[in-house]
Amino acid sequence: MKTLFASLTLALTAAAVAQTTLPADTVRIHYFRPDAAYAGWGLHAWEDTTAQVAWDKPLTPNGEQGGWLYWDVPMKTDWKKLGFIVHKGDEKDPGPDGTLTPELGNQVWIVSGKTDLFTARPDTGVRTVGDLRGQQAIMLGRDLIAVKPELAQPGAWLTLHVSPTAGLKLGAEGVSGGDTLTLEEVEGGMTPALKAKAPYLAGYKLLQIRAEDRAKFPAALRGQLAVSSVMPDGTVLDATGVQTAWALDDLYAYDGPLGVAWQGNRPTVRLWAPTAQDVKLRVSRPDGSQERTLPMTRDAQGVWTASGDQSWKGLAYRFEVKVYAPASGKVETNLVTDPYSVALTRGSTHSVFADLSDSSHKPAGWNALQKPALRSFSDLSFYELHLRDFSAADATVPAAERGTYLAFTRTGSDGMKHLRGLADAGLKAVHLLPTFDIATIGEDKAKWKSPGDLSRFAPNSDEQQRAVTAVKDADAYNWGYDPYHYMVPEGSYAVNPAERTKEYRQMVMGLNAAGLRVVQDVVFNHTAASGQSERSVLDKIVPGYYHRLNVNGGVENSTCCSNTATEHRMMRRLMVDTLVLMAREYRVDGFRFDLMGHHMVEDLRAARRALDALTLAKDGVDGKQIYLYGEGWDFGEVQGNRRGTNATQLNLYGQGIGTFNDRIRDALRGGNPFGGLQEQGVATGLVAVPNGQPGNDSAVKWGQLADLVKIGLTGNLRDYRFTDHAGQVVTGSQIKYGDAPAGYAASPRETINYASAHDNQTLWDAVLLKTPANMDSATRVRFQNLAHSYVLLGQGLPFSYAGDDILRSKSFDTDSYNSGDWFNTLDWTGKSNGFGKGLPPAEKNEANWPLYRTLLGNAALKVTPADVLRASDHYREMLRVRSSSSLFRMETAAQVQQGLSFLPAPTGVIAMRLTGATSAANPYRTVVAVFNGSADAVTLNDASLRGLTLHPVLAKSTDPIVRASKVSSTGVTVSALTTAVFVGK
Q1: Checking CA distances to 463, which of 266, 541, 704, 762 falls within 20 to 30 Å?
Q2: Any idea which residues carry the catalytic annotation?
Q3: Which residues, if any, are the signal sequence (predicted)?
Q4: Is the pLDDT assigned to residue 7 strictly greater than 50?
């Protein structure tokens, strides 16, 4: 019987079943359920399929054969791999991602509940109890195993089976082959400490390796493991594979050097691979030629070591790892790069013996680099920028340097002039989308494909997206949330991939010279691949360790890819070591954590401790000035602390780590990323100019959203007390955002306030969607400016998406991660803003095409250079206002409670008063910011407003409406859709 995995125990029918002959560009997936309950089950497919498949829109079955459902999946003519999952909503059957390659044919059979895949139809009448490919037994330490209660029945014989050759078999009488260790149930079961370690296993029973067998277990970890439960009468209750990560932590966690270390000119390379049966080192020239294989030595901690001489410098290397891989059920011999690589060949095929301290890797002046001054984290502000977006279309950058690190060294380019102008106005940092080695962008630029000139198509045509989609996996573009190697800069962003370290450092120097600190977007919550996939690294070295597994042993993918498990000590260490290396070797000033809520709070604490230990004298960097922030969303398998205390908005209270404030984002824009496309918010016309959609004229709704904005203006403080829209004195946490508390921060520095980021529509696209269709562009600009005013003048750290200050549009693309230069390009000249480039790619946007088609075809929605200039001027004026006084940048919750209050104001208006003692950082005793989002001018009369004057920056504003803001003996008057700031000394 031919199967993908030798451990398969279902038998084929006695009579051969005729298999349908399919076209070469079609794959058929067969699926069998014993209960025949097929309703709602669909197929998710990816890799080399030509089908456009979304998780919420799976492929529907093409038919049924002999009680088996099947799907015919269209493939590229030269397909190499198909990934697939059978699922019903979020329920997967059986769970792990399926993979099919042409060598195995173009049909596969799946039986519900079994992880085995067949390349011939099995007989579903012959079934066994258990599944060795699944891993439902979970080790919690060196000798403890958690199992489902039904496995550990009273009187059952509990056995741990071990085979270094992956020779375990499952039959009607249970598990055969290999050796056995005896297990016994632990009286009292899961202890409080174990439940805290693995809350999702709280209801499991606990087994322990019998004392006389425990010494044998460390060696057993280097082979196949299974647990079986058999009653004295021979009845098999269950049999399953074993997850071993916590046992590896207990036995083999290691704190010594990894990767390449140099002693003089002599390199030593180390790899942590405790479950490997053998590891060899392959050394070659960078092109892979003249390769030789050398032995490596294993120590007691599972670290494999080899040393060389000075001739190795600049040579390439890989590891040959012989290891049992649960993903295939076999002992594999993997050729794999070093997860601690600091240099790579083009295309990331080999690691390179490189010493980053060599002068060849350093631009002139690197050792003497001076950082832009930073008084406090509270002074930070961020501008989120994709590296290729910055210069791909900038004609003032040499063609060879467009889309590269070196574009940031061109001080006279349009892009660098723009960034320098923002820095001069008060911007503090550029946040770069991922720049580590990425799995989804080819580094051989000669092979890049282009959609060609698409300007000939109508502004609301679908032709542009069709052309972009056709080359999307072969062009130069991707956001880069596909980690391949964490410690090496991405080669496609280098003019010369072999010089990527030096070029990256040149970029950092260029930005620092412009007065801007550099933040890296880091993605430690997942990798691009796992198992035996081509671009899998970690899982080919220590299978099953670095990734978070579900209770059946499948890799969790709630992040979209293969989730990592930083709760495991060596994955946490890889994350922390990467941060330290990037800070020390590349002088990075901050890190933004993608999907930070998928890490544990302790992971972030460990990162903070390691960075704080860096000093100028020892490391060339002051680690205490490195800021950490990220996405504190709570979802997936970690939601509700199910895997431990995860790094969410609420859990990070008091840690000094920032999280993105979605409360103010949604309140300003209206709706949320999951709905409410035309729902208006505080800064998009709610009540002021209703767009005709239900609820957009509700003053009550405006008051509710205004409370979220006010809390945001305090830095989203949990305990800040104020009077809400209903006249009740409440704290920030008592205001609700859905079912969650709105306020959650302990200090302003724990909050990142924003109205737009790379995810979802740009701010300008949101304004276009939500404001009435007949509104003129100058009025729309005032709404956009209002949103920026709230973000830039509030407590907390302001964050903006690159180009939002110049009305950037992506033609409504809600997720442009792979939409190419065409939909993502920035035009720093202000001559165009990206609107009208055609319907955005169907993959993420097709459901809204009817609305988008109408708007994109409306020529009146195009902006003028004057519109762009007004938006740009306003943004910079608000930055200057923020920079003018430390009252906008308070440090503590106590300071905010004492020094920030809200004045009575009508619907559509928020008036914020700041007070404090004057100092070198604060020339004003009183500051009042009036945000008038209503359709009429407003006059506020309050004793605290007497004697104030219009802020000197705004008194010279390029906007005459702002300059017309009035101060009287009793109050102030501010025009409609205008932000004015008044000060008093």
Answers
A1: 762
A2: 594, 631
A3: 1-18
A4: no
